[in-house]
Amino acid sequence: MSMMIEKNDIHKGLKNIYVTESRICLIDHKKGKIYYFGYDLDVLAEKSSFEEVLYLLLYGRLPSKREFNIFIDKIKSSMRLEEELRNLIQLIPKDVELMEGVRTVISYLGNLNGNGLDMTDKAIRDRAIDLVAKMPSIIAYLYRNRVGEDFLEPREDLSLAGNLLYLLTGNEYDVRDVKGLDMSLILYAEHGMNASTFAATVVASTGSDYYSSIVAGIGALRGPLHGYANTAALEQFIEIGGPENVEKWFEENIASRKRRLMGFGHRLYRIHDPRAKHYKRWLEENMNRFDTESRRVVETAFKLYEVAMNSFLAEKNIYPNCDYWSAQMYYALKLPKEVYTPIFAMSRISGWTAHIMEYIKENVLIRPRAYYIGERDKEFIPLEERE
Ligand code: COA
Hints:
The protein is mainly α.
C-alpha cells in the first residue's frame, strides 16, 4: 500500500472525518436528534435518570430493576472520598482553575487504585462507577477548599445530582431543581467523537491506562471552544449586566466581529442544538421561582438569544448550543461558575468510558500525519562556530 499522501488530504481539525465505527451515539444533525445506544435522548432526558444513563453507556443496554439496584449500591459505596484524596485536595493551590484540580485528583485516584493497565471491560466499568460516584465530592471539595469552607459528607438518600447540589451548597433543593440538574447530566453524558472523547480515545489507543485516558479528556474539555464554553457564556451574561444593555453590547463585541459569542455555534450543527430545548423549557417553567439576580441573568441571556437570532449569526446558521442554556440553569441553581465545566466533565466521563471500551476492542493506534511545509537541507553549523 502506498504511503504517499497529498496536501489535498489534509483535513484541518479533522472536520467531517470518521475515525472509527461506533454503536454508542447517533447524532442526526439534520433532523436534530441524538440517540444513546439507540435510545432517543429526548425520551431519556425526560424519563430516565443520570444513573440509568451511566449504566446504559457502560453496559450498552438498560439495566433490569435488580441490576439497577445493585448498580446504585455500588455507586453509594464509592461516593465518599478517601482521606488521601481529601488531603491532596487541600494541597491544591486555591487559585487554579477548578478543572486543573479535577485533573490532579483523578490522576491521583488512578495512583491509589493501582493496576491501571487492566483494561478489561469489568476493570474499566468498576473504575468508571467509582470515579463518577466520587465526582460530586471531588468537585464540591475542590470548590469548598478554594473558598475555605468545610467538606460535607455525601448522602446516601440523594442521587448524584442531588449530592452535587448538597455537597456544593449545603442546601436542600426543590425536586424540580434536582431533576433539572439530573437532566443536564443526561444531556451532557455523550456526544459522539467530540474533541475530549477523541483525546481520551487517542490515549487509550496507545495501550495506556484508564485514568490517563480520562485525564486527557479532562484536558481537552477545559478549553473554551469545548467544555469551558458554559462558563464563558455565563461570564458574558454577567459582563452584559442586564437585558437593557444587550443590543449595544452585541453591536460592539459580536456584530463588529471582535469576539465570538460564547455558547453559540457547533462543529456538527447548523440547526438548533437538539439538547437546547430541554434547558430552555426548564428555564421557562421555573423562571417564576428564581430570585431577582438569577432572573436578570436569564432575561439577559434570553434577550441576547433574540438579538443574535436577528443577526448575521442566524444567516450563517449559527445557533446556541447546550452550553448557552446550561450556564443559565446552573446560575439559577446558585452554583458557582467555577464548577460548570467540572459538572460537564462528571457527566461526560460516562461517554469517554463507553468510547474507550468500544475502541480498544478492535484497537488501531491513532496516529495521523502532518504535511511538512518547512525548510529542507539546511546547513548545520556546529555550536562553537555559531555567533
Ligand atoms: N460567534 C461568532 N461567530 C461565530 C461563532 C460564534 N460563537 N461560531 C461560529 N462563528 C462564525 C465564524 O466566525 C465563521 O465565520 P466566517 O465564515 O465568516 O469565518 C463561521 O461562523 C463558521 O465558524 P467555524 O469556526 O469555522 O465553525 P466551527 O464548526 O469550526 O466552530 C465552534 C465551532 C464551536 C468552535 C465555534 O462555533 C465557536 O467558537 N463557538 C463558541 C464557543 C462555544 O460555544 N463552544 C462550545 C461548543 S459545544
